[in-house]
């Protein structure tokens, strides 16, 4: 080994030691790198942690680096493929992580982790699909046939139950074959009779790809979305209070995205009807107005139903109906 190689090795060892020293004592939080979470735009997991949406985890990630240090908490963010995160968290190597609910089940690691919070993004369905003109119109029709999938654990368990129910044994059982990519082409090429379990979403690129390949769903196996997980066998038990703090903050961000504040004025005699329409999380806040017989009501309303709620309030005489978005909350 020449002097240049010696110097390079010393530099590499020094860098590794520096990084290790930097991570010592910090909570390790695994974030999906790039766009590895299904239906999730690149960077969405990072945005969820950003101060601007309330979690107040301040960090700066340098290009190509898969580890960065949080500036205002003893936390290090580790950027990993979503498929690897359940194992890292389940083994206790990483304290917290964001991944897909389906990825956890496919990794068969659900007994080693706890799903702390569903995050409300990356939603899609895992479905069994066949060709539109296929004779297989139900999963029972497909049982005992050739099925390809990139989720062989989930598909294997799903079709095993169907095989058992139909008393299929030995060579008559459904044949599951793993395919890592271009799953939608397998049926058209005659390699399989059906797509075992694949992600699909009406607004996703894969949903369009499946339809373009002449496929349609015949059963939904699982509804999935991004989740926050923690280890059941943590190696750093002293981080428990910090884990709870971060989980509560992210829960606040999730709730803020789910609810709006609805405020309106209404006659006092209409309070019972109004409280039925806008019951809030516990109860609506009711305040008297200067004008006799009128009150102001404030209540949390689910964002997805706010237009319908406003219509109902107008029908019972509510006035000055206002809706406010939430940046953050604790509910």
Structure description:
With 331 residues, the chain is an alpha/beta fold. The chain is built from eleven helices and 15 strands. The strands form three sheets. Strands 2-3-1-4-11-5 form a six-stranded mixed β-sheet. The protein has a five-stranded mixed β-sheet with strand order 8-7-9-6-10. Helix 6 links the parallel strand 7 and strand 8. It starts with a helix and ends in a 6-residue tail after the last strand. About 5% of the residues have low confidence.
State the major sheet. Answer: 6 strands, mixed
Instruction: Report the C-alpha radius of gyration, rounded.
Output: 26 Å
> Kindly, what is the distance between the CA atoms of the first and last residues, rounded to a whole number of angstroms?
62 Å
What share of the residues lie within helices? 25-40%
What is the oligomeric state here? single chain
Q: Number of helical segments?
A: 11
SSE blueprint:
Elements: H1 3-23, E1 27-32, H2 44-49, E2 67-69, E3 75-80, H3 85-90, E4 96-100, H4 101-106, E5 113-118, E6 124-131, H5 139-142, E7 146-149, H6 152-165, E8 175-178, H7 185-188, E9 194-200, H8 205-212, E10 215-224, E11 226-231, H9 240-258, E12 259-267, H10 271-277, E13 285-288, E14 294-302, H11 306-315, E15 319-325
Parallel strand pairs: 1-3, 1-4, 7-8, 7-9
Antiparallel strand pairs: 2-3, 4-11, 5-11, 6-9, 6-10, 12-14, 12-15, 13-14
């Amino acid at each position: 080994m020449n002097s240049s190689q010696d110097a390079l090795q010393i530099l590499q060892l020094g860098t590794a030691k520096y990084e290790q020293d930097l991570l010592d004592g910090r909570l390790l939080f695994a974030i999906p790198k790039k766009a590895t979470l299904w239906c999730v735009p690149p960077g969405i997991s990072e945005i969820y942690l950003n101060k601007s949406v309330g979690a107040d985890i301040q960090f700066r990630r340098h290009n190509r680096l898969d580890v960065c240090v949080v500036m205002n908490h003893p936390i290090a963010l580790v950027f990993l493929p979503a498929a690897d995160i359940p194992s890292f968290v389940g083994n206790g190597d990483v304290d917290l992580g964001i991944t897909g609910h389906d990825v956890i089940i496919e990794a068969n690691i659900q007994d080693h982790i706890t799903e702390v919070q569903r995050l409300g993004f990356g939603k899609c369905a895992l479905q069994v699909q066949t060709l539109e003109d296929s004779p297989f119109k139900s999963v029972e029709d497909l049982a005992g046939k050739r099925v390809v999938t990139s989720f062989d654990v989930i598909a294997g368990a799903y079709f095993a139950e169907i095989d058992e129910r139909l008393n299929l044994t030995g060579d008559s059982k459904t044949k599951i074959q793993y395919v890592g990519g271009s799953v939608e082409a397998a049926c058209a090429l005659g390699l399989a009779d059906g797509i075992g379990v694949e992600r699909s979403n009406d607004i996703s690129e894969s949903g369009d790809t499946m339809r373009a390949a002449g496929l349609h769903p015949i059963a939904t196996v699982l509804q999935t979305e991004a989740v926050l997980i923690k280890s059941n066998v943590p190696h750093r038990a002293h981080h428990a209070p910090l884990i709870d703090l971060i989980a509560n903050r992210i829960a606040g961000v999730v709730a803020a995205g789910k609810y709006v504040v609805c405020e309106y004025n209404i006659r006092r005699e209409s309070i019972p009807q109004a409280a039925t329409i806008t019951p809030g999380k516990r109860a609506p806040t009711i305040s008297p107005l200067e004008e006799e017989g009128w009150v102001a009501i404030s209540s949390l309303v689910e964002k997805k139903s706010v237009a319908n709620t406003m219509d109902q309030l107008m029908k019972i005489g509510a006035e000055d109906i206002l809706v406010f978005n939430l940046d953050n909350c604790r509910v």
